[in-house]
Amino acid sequence: MNVDRSDDQTRASDARPQPTYPRKDLLRRAGMGAGALALGGAAATLLGATPVAARMAAPAVLRAGKTYRAAWVGATCEASTYTAYAKHLWASEGINVELLHLAPPAVLDALVTGKVDVAPGILYNWLKPIEQGADVLLAAGLHGGCLRMVVGAHTGIKTFMDLKGKTIGTDAIGGSAMNFFSVVLAKSGLNPTTDVSWRVYPPAQFGTALDKGEIQAVTAPDPFPYLLTQAGQVVEIGSNMTGMFANNFCCVVALHGALVREDPKAAAAITRGLMNGSKYTGTHLHEVATIEVQDKFVPVGVATVEHLLSSYTWHPSATTLKPQILQGALDYKLTGFLDNRTDARKLAERAYVDIFKLAAAAG
């Protein structure tokens, strides 16, 4: 399969790390900028991307001639998407789906504007946009795990509290890892916008930045923090696979709101395909790891991918997601990225859709 990687040029165009953001600007970018609906550079990334034609036999489609789009960014944990595509699980649901490769900052705008119909991603990424009115609905949890915090092996940092006054390298301001660990820092007693600094690097430059002392810690989706651990350059001090987050979903199914309203049966089929992809991954770890590597979804070896996939949980659910959205909203408010006036319960109600009930009612 020729997987389109047309946004790689956009990703690689910044050969230097982004500046450390002033704390006032950080709050805007992480709490508002990441959730804002302005297109800007994200649209440019999107316009440079070309979809991958769905690799499947022609099914009896729900809507004749309709092709749906799913976003992917290249993280190990997107196995549900890769598997639904490669194993023709969406075809089994009677729909055509193609994949669109996007840099992380482009995903939100692509989903909000309907350039893609579904974009699996971490729960916290969607809360601020939905608070601000983004036309996005969350339908199911897909898996647990995939985000890690690692620190330089010789920094002496052992706990989250030790990060006070330190600089953390990450892959995107307002990205999945920053959002999750902002919650962790807040729960640990630190202010994620004033007690630490955040600096963006292309993942390939994390190691060099650590060596130079520009950063003392790294957080990003797998496989990047784990590769630094393999090299002996860092030690892991936390992840979303242990402690209070061990039983929570990491990534969820985010759907374009208009699709849900106009074609709930298709939205349900897309969601079910992803959930089946998650279930398949959990029982076929080596096969899915091979798919990720051979089809060039991730830039690492099969053994590493298989190890990472085995550390996640693969028990998708639509029904247990809603209470986790509520808890996620309550937790995310601790970071200051949600408005203090926001009612977490109302936000959860607005964010969640019982897509299978809605599809059944549509007849």
Short account of what is shown:
The protein has about 375 residues and is α/β, with parallel strands linked by helices.
How many domains make up the 3D coordinates? 2
The 3D shape can be described as: globular
CATH class of the largest domain: Alpha Beta
* Alpha carbon gap, first and last residue: 36 Å
Major beta sheet, strand line-up: 7-6-8-5-9
Unreliable spans: 1-18, 27-60
Main sheet specs: 5 strands, mixed
CATH fold title of the largest domain: D-Maltodextrin-Binding Protein, domain 2
How large is the count of helical segments? 17
The CATH superfamily name of the largest domain is: Periplasmic binding protein-like II
Q: Average pLDDT value?
A: 85
Instruction: List how many beta strands DSSP finds.
Output: 10
How helix-rich are the residues, as a percent range? 40-55%
List keywords for this structure.
363 residues; alpha/beta; D-Maltodextrin-Binding Protein, domain 2; five-stranded mixed β-sheet; three-stranded antiparallel β-sheet; 10 strands; 15% strand; disordered N terminus
What this model shows, in words?
- This protein is an alpha/beta fold and 363 residues long.
- It folds into two domains: 8-145 and 248-361, Periplasmic binding protein-like II (D-Maltodextrin-Binding Protein, domain 2, 3-Layer(aba) Sandwich); 147-245, D-Maltodextrin-Binding Protein, domain 2.
- The protein has helices at residues 8-12, 23-32, 40-47, 79-86, 89-92, 104-112, 123-131, 176-187, 206-212, 224-230, 257-262, 264-283, 285-294, 302-310, 321-333, 344-351, 355-361; strands at 67-72, 96-101, 121-122, 136-143, 147-152, 167-170, 197-200, 217-221, 234-239, 251-256.
- The strands form three sheets. A five-stranded mixed sheet has the order 7-6-8-5-9, sandwiched between helices. A three-stranded antiparallel sheet has the order 3-10-4, with helices on both faces.
- Helix 8 links the parallel strand 6 (167-170) and strand 7 (197-200).
- The longest helix has 20 residues, at 264-283.
- The protein starts with 7 loop residues before the first helix and ends with a helix.
- 53% of the residues are buried.
